[in-house]
Amino acid sequence: MAINIDKALGAFPHALELRSRRAEILANNLANSDTPGFMARDVDFKNVLSGMMGEQTETPALQATQARHEQGLLSPDSINGLMYRMASQPSVDGNTVDMQKERTEFVRNTQEFQAALTFLNSKLKGLTMAIKGGE
């Protein structure tokens, strides 16, 4: 019987990739907390992961109306759900980065990355044991 690796590993490889990219986005937000006019960005993890898995997403991807529009940190087709985060208290200079929110999201994303990595590692160990015949 053949083993379908993609089905066996599930969403975990995609989740790890997206968590890594989200860490870059959140780190960029933190790095630009003092940049006038900088607008914080983030992704809707559930919708973007569904899109990566080939499922129907709930929200449409953002579209640029001009060729010169900024596409964010990543190539335009790598994360379609990259959006601006609404600030609870925008600063006078137009910067929308809330340091406490960004730090909290960064730590949460890191913990969820570690959890996905642990689950993926467990799946790989199970597949290895199945291939070797168990011990």
Short summary of the structure?
With 135 residues, this protein is mainly α. It has helices spanning 5-9, 12-31, 45-52, 99-132, and strands spanning 41-43, 82-84.
Description:
The protein has 135 residues and is mainly alpha-helical. The chain folds into 2 domains: 35-97, no CATH class; 98-135. It is 50% helix and 4% strand. The chain has 4 helices and 2 strands. It has helices at residues 5-9, 12-31, 45-52, 99-132; strands at 41-43, 82-84. The chain has a two-stranded antiparallel ribbon. The longest helix has 34 residues, at 99-132. The two termini are 20 Å apart. The relative contact order is 0.20. Residues 56-62 and 68-78 have low confidence and may be disordered.
Shape call: elongated
What's the multimeric state? single chain
Strand order of the largest sheet: 1-2
Characterize the largest beta sheet: strand count, sense, and whether it forms a barrel. 2 strands, antiparallel
Number of helices: 4
The helix fraction, in percent, is 40-55%
Strand content: under 5%
N to C succession of SSEs:
HHEHEH
- Poorly predicted parts: 56-62, 68-78
- Total strand segments: 2
Q: What is the CA-CA span between the terminal residues? A: 20 Å
CA radius of gyration: 18 Å
Total number of domains: 2
Quote the average pLDDT.
78
Structural class, by secondary structure, is mainly alpha
